[in-house]
Amino acid sequence: MVLICSSPGWTASSVGLSIIIPPDGSSVESSVISVVLNGWQTVVDEIAISVNNRKQDVAAKKFERYDMCYDGIRLSYGMNNITITGFKNGRKVHELTTRVFFRSDLSPSANNAPDGFKKYLFHTGGNEKKCSPCHELDFRRAVERQEGPDQSPCYVCHKKILSGYKFVHGPAAVWSCLMCHDGKSKSPKLAVPSPVSQFCVNCHENSWDSRKYLHAPTAAGSCTACHNPHAADKPYFLRMSAGDLCLSCHEDIPTRPHVISSFSSESGHPLKGRPDPLKPGEELTCTSCHNPHGGNSSVFLNGYDEAKKPMKFFCMSCHKW
User: Fold this and answer.
1) In this structure, are residues 191 and 181 in contact, taking their beta carbons and an 8 Å threshold?
2) Nearest to 120 by CA among 231, 234, 19
3) pTM for the whole structure
4) Looking at residue 130, what is its pLDDT?
5) Side by side, which strands form the sheet with 46-51?
């Protein structure tokens, strides 16, 4: 996650408006970042921000300081061209751009950042030194005297990371960020120790250790590969719909018959667009048959132990013959 701050340590450029954060050629692993601009009120009095020509919802702010922060800038997988437009008295007077690559294992086209792009982290000594005159960056000390969620030092810069989503994860909802982020880590600061599952199991029951087979992300303890630990629009904080999430790694499945060809076509078992026979009101997805964490069959069939019964008995859960 990119963090930002404002400080009198930065000075405005000779043209009156400049992008401080994120620097051009940044690679990040968050769908929501922040932008910090440097400018003079005598030069610009309104800002518009767009990402790949999509206008972002940014609050109107007066340049009462040299540096202005805009959080909640949403990215798409892959390359994002961020355009900053400055206005004075309703007239466009400046337009600046910066390129940010949103790297993700869930998008085949975004697995690797282009040459020349560097991983960007805000919480470095140099950046924090500029922000510390106005922002509390000793996180453990701040938490000790925190009276409410909106008093969290994280809230000021990250409040939009939770806005606009249907579901918000419990620790994030009360801004208990240090439950997962290590306030003592130095390189990088506020890192989440690996594997992340060591934190997840503190609250979420781990029922997978006894299974014969584990899905690769589960075995690696990479819960956040599929689940967003902050907020999401999908149940269980999935980063995308269950079917799309599975196909982001198993992209060959739609190109060939799955399981067996049906009686009426050669396309195989349906993967979506049908009602789930065992879950009224829900759509059939990959997880209707497969447990995404693991199981006692090599293909993680839900509640099925391949050593005890032939697979046809699993199919008969829905197909009666």
Assistant:
1) yes
2) 19
3) 0.82
4) 74
5) 54-55, 46-51, 78-88, 91-102, 26-28, 118-119
